Amino acid sequence: MPDPLSRPIAAEITERLTQALAPTHLLVTDDSEKHRGHAGHDPRGESHFTVEIVSPRFAGLSRLERQRAVNAALAELLKERVHALAITARAPEEELGRNAND
Asked: What pLDDT is recorded for position 1?
């Protein structure tokens, strides 16, 4: 089995979030090219991401608790390969396009 840290990071993020949070919607966007030359840019690419996720497991959780759940699912990647992660996390009954608990 290949080392998960050698796989494309976007694919690994998708797999880990799918397993941990059973999302009904998940969009992982690699924003690394926007950060070329900035601190934390990894010349290998795949260092900055945006995650948009909708999961029933977020129902009743605060925005901070939701972000912590995403970060927990991705802990190893955040430590080893991902420099920055922007997260939009919602429960299914919430509208996309507005921040939960704001």
From this structure: 40
